[in-house]
Design brief:
It is a single chain. Helices cover 18% and strands 31% of the residues. The protein contains 7 helices and 28 strands. The protein starts with 13 loop residues before the first helix and ends with a strand. The strands form 8 sheets. It has a 6-stranded mixed beta sheet with strand order 7-4-6-5-9-8, with no helix packed on it. The chain has a 6-stranded mixed beta sheet with strand order 16-13-17-21-20-18, sandwiched between helices. Strands 19, 22, 24, 25, 26 and 28 form a 6-stranded mixed beta sheet that branches. The protein is α+β, with helices and mostly antiparallel strands. The protein has 4 domains: 14-29 and 187-335, Molybdenum Cofactor Biosythetic Enzyme, Chain A (3-Layer(aba) Sandwich), CATH 3.40.980; 31-54 and 165-185, Molybdopterin biosynthesis moea protein, domain 2 (Alpha-Beta Complex), CATH 3.90.105.10; 59-147, Beta Complex (Molybdopterin biosynthesis moeA protein, domain 3), CATH 2.170.190; 344-412, Beta-clip (Beta Barrel), CATH 2.40.340. The model has no long low-confidence stretch (mean pLDDT 94).
Length: 414
């Protein structure tokens, strides 16, 4: 049954909706093999097991001299031991000179250790007597200042487990162990659809009754933060048959459909009714201000897939708040990428902020010398109230606002 003209029948709280989405909207992606150097912000679909030791050879951890530790025993400032300098090895050298008892080989940090050497004495613990003679002022033990061939990574070691979000330093380790190809989960395929007879394309000058389609490019930009595959981004008129056909087409090629507009209870708000007719609607209405008319459900496809759809309100601020609450949290779960703009700080309120019990208010604040002041509490279509805001304050459902002078936690937007 359509909700148009009848009002919302089951308005839910934010946490109820989030729990429902988490339980019901599951993502079971396919996987693909890609080059490791192109894997930034992808999620591993396999365990990475090293087939090599890293660094793969013994190397010096210090600038100094490679020695036999036993050749230094008893050395001190007052009783140095003299060794003969018999060669030199630098980082990048493939081989090192042979070390004989009573000798030392000059060595650089990262250079391969001569096979016979078992310690490196730091250059500051020695005194050069001539170009070929060295006095050792301090004894060293076997293994001192030597990095073993498996100090970093061992053969058959689990380097990264399945499900890991790949960061730049992970790519470095892949290259270091020779893992040039890796298996990752495919990117979520997302479609975005803005709806409304009033919409005109970006760059147009709207006439009376027209509105620039600004939600869609903003949502497209937001999606880039999550490294998804944006397969479609389109608009559609408020025609129930056109909308239904468009959504059916998008469901075939998408893992998630995001729409804006047409979600409330007006005569042209077709989205909830369409979702009911070709799938399942399990959320319609959220106890927030602004942003109440959000709709969430599934679209059934001929292949028996149930494709999730999150239908956002058409007013920009309402759309963006719902996007962060439900779309961003879902995509963060799918992609392992953190939701942006979540830094919390404490601010002092300049003015009183009233709030209706049972509704979560999203209040835009601006910093002043006397504290954070309210830009607006209401006004779902007032985009400038978000553009000019320094902070976003969430007033929980169970309190009736804050007093002037209260210290509150806010999200930093700028």
């Amino acid at each position: 049954m359509s909700a148009r003209g009848r009002g919302f029948s089951n308005i839910m709280r934010v946490e109820e909706i989030k729990q429902l989405v988490q339980e019901r909207v599951l993502y079971n992606p396919n996987s693909e093999r890609i080059s490791s150097i192109q894997a930034l912000d992808r999620v591993l679909a396999e365990d990475i097991i090293s087939k090599v030791n890293l660094p793969g050879f013994r190397r010096s951890a210090m600038d100094g001299f490679a020695v036999l530790a036993s050749s230094t025993f008893g050395a001190s400032d007052t009783s140095p031991i003299r060794l003969k300098i018999s060669g030199q090895v630098e980082i990048g050298d493939k081989t090192a000179p042979i070390l004989q008892t009573g000798n030392a080989i000059r060595i650089s940090t990262g250079a391969p250790i001569p096979q016979e050497a078992d310690a490196v004495i730091k250059i500051e613990d020695c005194e050069l007597i001539t170009d070929l003679d060295l006095d050792v002022m301090s004894a060293v033990n076997s293994g001192t200042n030597i990095a073993n061939e498996d100090e970093d990574i061992k053969i058959n070691e689990l380097v990264l487990p399945i499900g890991t979000l790949i960061r730049p330093w992970d790519i470095a380790i892949f290259e270091s162990i020779g893992q040039n190809q890796i298996i990752v989960y495919c990117l979520p395929k997302i479609s975005v659809l803005s709806t409304g007879n009033e919409l005109v394309t970006s760059g147009s000058i709207p006439n009376i009754g027209e509105v620039v389609d600004s939600n869609r490019p903003a949502i497209n930009a937001w999606l880039t933060k999550f490294n998804v595959n944006l397969v479609k981004s389109e608009s559609c008129l408020d025609d129930i048959d056109l909308l239904k056909e468009k959504i059916i087409q998008l469901a075939v090629q998408s893992d998630l459909i995001i729409t804006t507009g047409g979600t409330s209870v007006g005569t042209k708000d077709y989205l909830p009714e369409i979702i009911v007719n070709i799938g399942e609607l399990f959320v319609h209405g959220c106890a927030i201000r602004p942003g109440k008319p959000v709709a969430i459900g599934f679209i059934n496809t001929e292949s028996k897939r149930k494709v999730p759809i999150i239908a956002l309100p058409g007013y920009p601020l309402a759309a963006f708040i719902n996007f962060e609450l439900f779309v961003a949290s879902l995509l963060s779960n799918w992609t392992k990428i953190e939701i942006p703009w979540q830094n919390q700080i404490k601010v002092k309120l300049k003015t009183k902020i009233p709030s209706q019990a049972g509704v979560r208010d999203f209040v835009r604040l601006k910093e002043t010398s006397a504290g954070a002041e309210v830009i607006r509490i209401t006004g779902a279509g007032i985009l400038s109230s978000l553009v000019h805001a320094d902070y976003m304050l969430e007033v929980p459902e169970d309190i009736e606002g804050y007093s002037a002078g209260d210290i509150v936690s806010v999200k930093k937007l700028r």
